[in-house]
Amino acid sequence: MRNKLIFALVAIGATGAAVSAYVYSVPAKPLPPAFQPARDPYSGGIYANGIIESDQAHGENTNLYPEVAGTVTRIPVAEGQRVNRGDALVQLDDSVQQAVVDQQLAQAEAAHALLDELRAQPRRENLEVAKAQLDLATAQRKTAQDQLDKQHRSYELAPESISRDQLDNAVNGVAVAEANLGVVRRQYELTKAGAWQYDIANQDKAHEALVRAAAASTALLAKYTLRAPTDGIVMSIGTSVGSYVSPQGIYNPYTQGLDPVIVMNGETAHLAVRCYVDEILISRLPPPDHIQAEMAIRGTDVRVPLTFVRVQPYVSPKIELSNERQEKVDLRVLPVVFRFEPPKDVGVYPGELVDIYIGVK
User: Fold this and answer.
1) pLDDT for res 102
2) I need a labelling partner for 35 at 20 to 30 A (CA). Which of 119, 128, 214, 271 fits?
3) Does residue 274 lie in a domain region?
């Protein structure tokens, strides 16, 4: 009885193994793809990776860096916001530079006041004092001369009435009064003439130098506000209030490089895509007037026709998608730029990676 049970269990196990083997040997029906993979629509076409960017005559996007270093105190714009040329984008701490400007403006005003003072000479009060001193010296000269005349008449009437020493003193008194009158008269003429022309010219140049220094400091003060160089859209803000930025940009801990503080694109109805053709395929690239291209947006079935714009005639090392030059590989590529109108049924953005197929018309 026991042996029959064992043989029955063995038979059941063998049957189950055979059924399992058959069931698992049948291939599972594959799931349908979420989207159809992009295929080359051209016979003998060229495939290339592409990165969407702004549609502008030069460069990829508008990367903005401050011309001075400082701490960010205000960011009056937001990503995706449309801005006009001259709008403030980032404000840096300008308190020190503002103090320098105020000081130099005050110095320029003081120099201008001194220049006006020189040009306004002679001062009426000073001229009146100098005139009074001249009148006093003239009176003293007359008094000394009268004393001398009296001494002479007395000497002529009675020589013994005047000593020779008194007469000599009177003569010397007239000479001293005459010399003093000459000095006072020249001082009066100097006061009446006003400031020396060379002093005025020197002060004028000093005032002009201070005005120019203040203007230069004011121009530097304006650099502490990063403004939009053209109309466009703010695509990326790489800093925040309290961060330190420099003319080299701001440190990105992810890429370990320096990124622009602000990235903008032009406000146009089109976008551009820059594709990189491998150097081994450059010889197969059609002439510019025969190029026909199509863009496939990854993750969708959307295909967008492209319009050829230009070839950047400089073969450079291939780079990773972060666009960091230190991430080189052992291949060189030729950049080719196309323009396209963004599709309405799917969103595309600058910096997005797409597939490009290049063929011949």
Assistant:
1) 96
2) 271
3) yes
Helix %, strand %, coil % of the chain (to 5):
40, 25, 30
Q: Is residue 257 part of a domain?
A: yes
- In this structure, the answer to whether residues 236 and 281 fall within a common structural domain is no
Residue 100 maps to a domain: no
Instruction: Say which CATH number the domain at 144 has.
Output: 1.10.287
Give the total number of structural domains in the chain: 3
Total number of residues shown for the chain: 361
Is the Cβ–Cβ distance between 41 and 291 less than 8 Å? no
In this predicted structure, the answer to whether residue 1 has a pLDDT above a threshold of 80 is no
| Residue 329 predicted with pLDDT over 70 | no
Q: How far apart are CA 274 and CA 267, in angstroms?
A: 18
Q: What CA–CA distance (Å, rounded) separates 213 from 41?
A: 65
Q: To which H or E segment does residue 274 belong? A: strand 271-278
Domain with 303 in it = 46-55+268-360
* Predicted confidence (pLDDT) per residue in 146-186, tens digit: 888 887 887 777 777 777 777 778 888 888 988 998 998 99
User: What is the token pair recorded at 184?
Assistant: 């006072």
Which CATH number is 332's domain given? 2.40.30.170
What pLDDT, in 10s, does the model give residues 201-260? 999 999 999 999 999 999 999 999 999 998 888 989 999 999 999 999 888 888 778 889
Task: Give bridge partners of residue 40 from the DSSP assignment.
Answer: none
Phi, psi angle pair for 311, to nearest 5°: -110, 130
- Core vs surface per residue 136-171: b (16+ CB within 10 A) or e: ebeebbeebeebbeebeeebeeeeeebeeeebeebe
Q: Which residue has the higher pLDDT, 312 or 4?
A: 312
Paired residues of 263 in beta bridges: 63, 236
274 and 353 in a common domain: yes
Q: What is the CATH number of the domain that holds 83?
A: 2.40.50.100
Residues 143 and 167 in one domain: yes
At 241, phi and psi to the nearest 5?
Answer: -60, 130
Q: Is the pTM of this model over 0.70?
A: no
Pairing of strands 88-92, 250-252: unpaired
The domain boundary residue, chosen from 194, 212, 234: 194
